[in-house]
Amino acid sequence: MSSGSYFPDAEVDELSPQLQKLFGKASEQLGFVPNVFTAYAHRPERFSAWFNHFRQVTEPSETLSGADREMIAVVASGINRCTYCLVSHGQALRHELHDDANADRITFNWRHADLTDRQRAICVFVEKLTSAPATVERSDVDALAAAGLGPDDIWDVVELTAMYNFTNRISSALGIVPNVEYHSLDRGPAAAEG
């Protein structure tokens, strides 16, 4: 299937062995190659640089979980109305939370989700940095610290928000559509047990 990109998709067999291995690993884990891979790999060297950064900032830590990081992705993507990222990271959030309903509430409108005060503070910050970056002040960063985030966590929230804003804009501008497989992954009772 085509990624939907307005540019030609990468031909996997023409990519470097490292990128072919990455595509194979994604296919093994998900059952398909994400359309963002084939679209972004139109410029393989830039795809490699983007993916290396993506992998680093999305790596969970003891104090900022995978679910927290995916929550940041869907909050930024929701404000930007990035269909690809809402669908793909909505699936990743379901996978991390093992709670379809709450993951969907976070994805569609985090204000209606079951969140801790810490998570709410993160969402407020992500929303402000995404929708009105010039208005972010020291008090906004201080609010994250007051909610229990340390300096490295705050840095990660900022960097993740910025990275998803970048990714949202590329995905939307290129016309990339989400793989249909994302819609059914990590849903239902079997996913909750996972």
TrEMBL record:
GO molecular function, one term: peroxiredoxin activity
Source organism of this protein record: Gordonia sputi NBRC 100414
Gene3D superfamilies named in the record: AhpD-like
Domain Carboxymuconolactone decarboxylase-like: 46-95
InterPro entries: AhpD-like (IPR029032), AhpD_core (IPR004675), CMD-like (IPR003779), Uncharacterised_peroxidase-rel (IPR010195)
Listed name of the protein: Carboxymuconolactone decarboxylase-like domain-containing protein
Pfam family, one: CMD
